[in-house]
Queue: 3 jobs
Job 1
Amino acid sequence: MIDLFPDRSPARRRKLVVENIGLLLSGRLEQPILDADTIVAVGGTITAVGRRADCDVEEADIVVDARGTTVCPGLIDGHTHPTLGEHSPRTDNHSWIHHCLHGGTTTMISAGEVHVAGRPTDRIGVKALAIAAQRSFAAARPSGVKMIAGAPLLEEGLLEEDFRELAEAGVELVGEVGIGSVADVETARTMVGWARANGMRCLTHTGGPSIPGSRLMTAEEILAIDPDVIGHINGGHTAFAHSQIRCLCEGCSRAIEIVHNGNAFAALYALRTATEMGQLERIVLGTDAPSGAGVPALGMLRLVAMLSSFGELPAEQVFCFATGNTARVHGLPQGILAPDRPADLVIMDRAQGTAGRTLLDSVALGDLPGIGMVLIDGVPVLRPSRNTPPATTLPEARRKPL
């Protein structure tokens, strides 16, 4: 694509206007569709969402004509396993973050750098790896994607002071509890408490073992550990019995994570259980990639389409699972289209040839949308996607004359 902003210095407060939006998805379950056709952003932050006549659209550095298509927040993959950079030795995946960007993912969250060759398990090594991963991805965002990395696994010998040191260094996460040498539930619960006291978020491995070093985690153990996120409740890869999934959903109020690289039947059961409970705000999504199943570049979109079609939920609600719900659980500003939020946007339309009359109809039928443009912090980073099916209508962009 043509680089519309060759000078990417953050010091420049560029103004972006996205106009002629046909459908605007907010990312909020309370109001998933907004009555608006225009977004304005300055310096990468949204300043206005509304009708064009009510927005300041003058003197824009770039104007994107959505041409009646759909705009939604950039998707947030809440469960990934990065290493350093874009290579994963697990299945020799290269440039995997870039390919997922073509599937509309603009933010990724690490569930542990588990595939690092020779991953250290001693106190110093655990901290060093987590801090290095956090620093590396904070300093160099592959293709612009925001990777929140540095998620240490629980290893025997870690002390309370280690979690304080990690938090002070900028580490926000604890990787999957159940991968690592800590096998005692009481020890795991104590360490999770230390992490949470220092502002860190935790998730558990759920279901059967996935890689050497992981183990079966029962529903009772997970409830006792009390993580912030019940990681891949549909298994990564092997799922619990449905009775155990219901036990988890009903036994706590924590986030319920459904992943692409898991058991689809169990995913639908977890979704239906949360629907019966009237607690869709607890559902968050991820891919659990890279893993032995590889990297599904369109994994987040495929998960949205699967849950909407088989779960018989409106597509606009399911898009919230992949955006605003995850943002809320992790305390992120992105994932919601509103003033003072990052202008991370996906512009998409129904795919050519779909039976759906609209984009939402097509997703509810199980089809993927075609992505015409992705913007991160108000900057177009790709147009169009080379991985999704071709969109019926593509947006157009023009830059202010120099």
Note: The longest helix spans residues 123-139.
Job 2
Amino acid sequence: MSGLPSLRAVLLTVLGVLVVTAVAGGVVVLMGDDLVRTAQEPVRRPITRAVPEAAPRLDQLVPTTAPVKDFGQGGPGVTVTPPRVLAIAPATVSRRTRLALGALKHVQKAAVVDAGAVKVAGTSLNLLAVDPADFRSWTPQPVADQPAVWSALARGELVAEAGTTRRYGMILGAMYQVDGGPRLRVAASATLGLSGVDGLVSLEVGRSLGFAKGVAVLLHGKPGTIAEAGVRRLLGKGAQVVVLDAASRTQRQQQQQPQQQQQQPVTVGRPNSYLDLYKAAATRCPGLSWTVLAAIGQVESSHGRNNGPSSAGALGPMQFMPATWKHYGVDGDGDGKADIWSPYDAVPGAANYLCANGAGKGGAKLRKSIWFYNHSWDYVDKVMGIAEAYARTYA
């Protein structure tokens, strides 16, 4: 982006500050001379490296169904309602249309905010102008949980999408001149999960920039359920509608395929060790190595030693979200129930979920199935690294 300050120039003016650009899925906030970073949901815990750490031997760990006594530290209490559909209407959305949008099948929550485009050194940025208090729950959990993000918006500063900061080389803490408008300070970089949106500003800043009032629509509901056609019908000709949960819709279509509907629960009994449990559960998915299941079990709960709930609500030794468990959970030990907390059910359930996403085909399909388990390629690399270590250890 021509005209934007270079990294060298900013480092010379901000003494003693090392600005680290946001990694994918992260939040970076400049607070005076400090940086704060968190990881983005659905990634449930920070990934630091792909090299596996020393883990207890699987043949010495006995699965247990004892009640969890220590659930670990939860989040600060912001309940997020991530948008499943984002739409830009050709004109201000009326109160009547907003109510109709909220009444669409599967829509649980609707919001309408201001939107507009600005140019910085000739480069166009698409921004939403929001009330920090009202919009907070529409962002991924780590963003909602970061008070500095919302304080920055309230001060009239810009929260930029992480991809935008990388693409244009924007520097946290730097001031950028809006063509024909004010100067904006980039206070934070975060993965917002809003396709086509380059950042957020406050309502007041949006009004000063002449943004269109009430043209951006956000809809929340169960993943993969809100019909795009209904949104277009209500917003009229010229509306732009973006489906934000395409992955969930793909999974939903896969679930409706006859061969997946006919899948039967697997019975693996109650093996005497996690090693035997992973090996038995992997037979549910021809082509899937037990080492991948074991690696996921290590990363998610250290083989049942940290069963959650996580701050995102994931449960059990394989850290399933309850909604996912409803579709893929199995009665692995034949005791008459599919228990998300029981390793005898959770491990074969994980094999079931991975297989539904192509894990048995190996190669890129295997990596993609692991990505569906936890949407992070760093997570995939870590799991594959641990799986390789298990393969060497138990060869």
Note: Residues 377-393 form the longest helix (17 residues).
Job 3
Amino acid sequence: MATPDVGRLREAIDGFTVDAVHGVLGDAAWRALARNETVPGLRATADGSTLSTLIRLFQLQAAVPRASAEAAFGDAWETALALGLVELDGDEARALLDLRPYGDETHDWWVVCDLTPGLDGRENPRDPSYVLGISEASSSLAQLTVRPQVDRALDLGTGCGVQALHLATHSRDVVATDVNRRATDLTRLTAAINGVDLDVREGSLFEPVAGERFDLISTNPPFVVSPPEGDRLVYRETGFPGDDVVRRIVTQAPDHLNDGGWCQVLAAWIHEDGVPWQERLASWIEPTGMDAWVVQRERVDLPEYAEMWLADAGLRHAPGHLERYDRWLSWFAEQRIEAMGFGWITLRKAGRATPQVRIEEWTGPVAQPVSSEFAAWAGRTDALDTGDLLDRAWRVGDDVVQETAGPVGAPDPAIIRAVRMGGLRPTRQLDTIEAGLVSASDGDLTAGQLLDAIAQLLEQDAAEVRRTYEPAVRELVADGFLV
């Protein structure tokens, strides 16, 4: 399709934005649509306006009168037909693809993907080449990905191109890859409609970019671990055993990163019977020589995991469900899988002699976008690797607050906690010396000088206080309480 035609389509749908759709639907219908229920939305879009017609066509997947569809697209009507966005059925028009408004604080985009299955309780198994649209996973990865200005970025496993759109806002060149040809086709269409220049390539993992390096790699790979049976949904499953797709990305990433480059993965991993999950991931990461911060956000038991992905495939109430469910659990038992973990893997090619590797579980709430926390982590790990921490002046982080607790009427608190309100919102209980150090850290005196002064006030040996609290200073810096 020639560029002017796509440009005409872009002009026709100008104003078809997330905020505009929300404004028409209202909160109740918006929330209902998130539950795959369209009736409140149909009631809210009965006025026949251009915006209501587009919402009915794409979000609600309802048939609309041909005349209404033609009026909504205007001069771009033939383009919409030619691109396969809509089709005619007598005097009615229906969507063949989902043209979905998407955006962030500064950008309004449109994403082209396959239609949402399961609206209004209709369960229909998905085609193996199904291209998923905007999901909780894609939104999570967008909030996780750091946003420095870079020369080259890679969206590995692009799907419909959501991450590539974000990367294009701060990268000179963006390469988007996917093993699914239908996904690369729809990503090209997404890019064209948005007027974004992407280099879209087909192939598995790093094969399409062999020998190339990037400053930033962002990926939400097909990480679902499932029995090797039937047609696999390409957007969520691979032919690799278990969680090997994630291991391959982690272990091969260094070969495709420039010095100082980042690789961020929204991933899942196996909890193998008798093997701590932290040790499994460390065995992938440590040989890479890269800094790493792994955060497990959720541990899911196997029945819940099987139910979730069988429902995702539209098989929850399909014939043979009980037998299929049982096969999943039997296969997990054969593979010695006891649970599944979900979370974030952030790698940075810092070039240290001793890489900083941090692997932990954090299931509590976080402040979004959490990407700022990982960007700050890079600076903190650099600081931890430079000189004597006690010979440097620190100040309290801007997002740190203090909480105290104790018996009613007591002159002094029994518990003092430092709480960060940003990032992962960590909390640290402080003893008297740590509380004094943190409260006095304003960037003027070094940590060692402050510890000496506190030791003198408490009539303790200054050298011993330094030796005892140097690890605490390191932890306070690592967690962002001191910067």
Note: The two ends are 53 Å apart (CA to CA).
